[in-house]
C-alpha cells in the first residue's frame, strides 16, 4: 500500500511538471490502481470540504454525492471509449480509466481554492476553478489521445461529445417540461 501511495504521488508530481510524457507512461503501463486512487481522492475531497464548511451538511448527502460521482465516472469512461472506437481509435478501457483518473488532479486545486473562499477574493477563486476545469479538460484530451492513438482533434471530440449530448438532453427535457406546463395552464 505504501508503494502505491508513493507511486501515485510521484505520478502526480510528474503530471504537473510534464503532463504529456507522464500521461503516455500512465496509459501505456495501465496504472489503473493509481488512477482510481487519484479519482477517489478527487471525489472525496469536495465531500469532506462541504461537510466541514457547511454545518448543516449531512453525511448521507455526501455518500449520495460519492455514489453519483462513481456512476458518472463509469458512464464517462464507457461513453468516451465508445466514441473513441467510433472515431477510429483503438485502445482499452483500462488504459482510458487510468488516464482519466489522473486527469482529474487539477480539480483538487479548485476544491482547495473554494475551501479558502473566506480568505481569498471570490474572483480569484472563480479564476482558479475555471483554470482547473480547463486544465482537467486538456489532460483528459491528452489521456484519450494516449490511450487510443488518435489525433488531438478526434480526442477533443471524444471527450466533449458526452458533454454535448448531456447538454442537448437537458435542453430537450426543459423544453418538453415548459410545453407540458403551458398545455396544463391553457387547459384551465
UniProtKB/TrEMBL annotation:
Record's bilayer topology term: Multi-pass membrane protein
Keywords: Membrane, Transmembrane, Transmembrane helix
Domain Yip1: 14-172
InterPro entries for the chain: Yip1_dom
The keyword Transmembrane belongs to this UniProt entry's keyword annotation: yes
Entry keyword annotation includes Disulfide bond: no
GO cellular component: membrane
Subcellular location: Membrane
Pfam family, one: Yip1
Annotated TM spans: 36-55, 61-83, 95-113, 119-144, 156-179
The protein, known as: Yip1 domain-containing protein
The organism of origin for this protein: Megasphaera paucivorans
Amino acid at each position: 500500500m505504501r508503494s502505491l501511495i508513493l507511486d501515485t504521488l510521484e505520478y502526480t508530481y510528474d503530471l504537473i511538471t510534464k503532463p504529456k510524457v507522464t500521461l503516455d507512461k500512465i496509459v501505456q503501463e495501465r496504472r489503473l490502481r493509481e488512477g482510481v486512487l487519484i479519482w477517489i481522492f478527487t471525489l472525496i475531497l469536495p465531500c469532506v470540504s462541504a461537510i466541514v464548511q457547511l454545518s448543516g451538511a449531512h453525511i448521507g448527502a455526501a455518500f449520495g454525492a460519492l455514489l453519483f460521482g462513481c456512476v458518472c465516472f463509469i458512464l464517462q469512461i464507457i461513453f468516451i471509449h465508445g466514441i473513441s472506437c467510433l472515431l477510429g481509435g483503438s485502445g482499452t478501457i483500462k488504459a482510458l480509466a487510468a488516464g482519466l483518473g489522473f486527469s482529474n488532479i487539477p480539480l483538487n486545486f479548485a476544491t482547495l481554492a473554494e475551501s479558502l473562499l473566506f480568505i481569498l477574493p471570490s474572483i480569484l477563486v472563480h479564476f482558479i476553478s475555471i483554470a482547473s476545469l480547463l486544465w482537467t479538460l486538456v489532460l483528459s484530451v491528452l489521456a484519450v489521445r494516449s490511450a487510443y492513438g488518435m489525433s488531438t482533434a478526434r480526442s477533443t471530440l471524444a471527450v466533449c461529445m458526452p458533454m454535448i449530448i448531456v447538454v442537448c438532453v437537458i435542453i430537450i427535457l426543459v423544453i418538453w417540461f415548459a410545453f407540458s406546463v403551458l398545455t396544463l395552464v391553457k387547459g384551465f
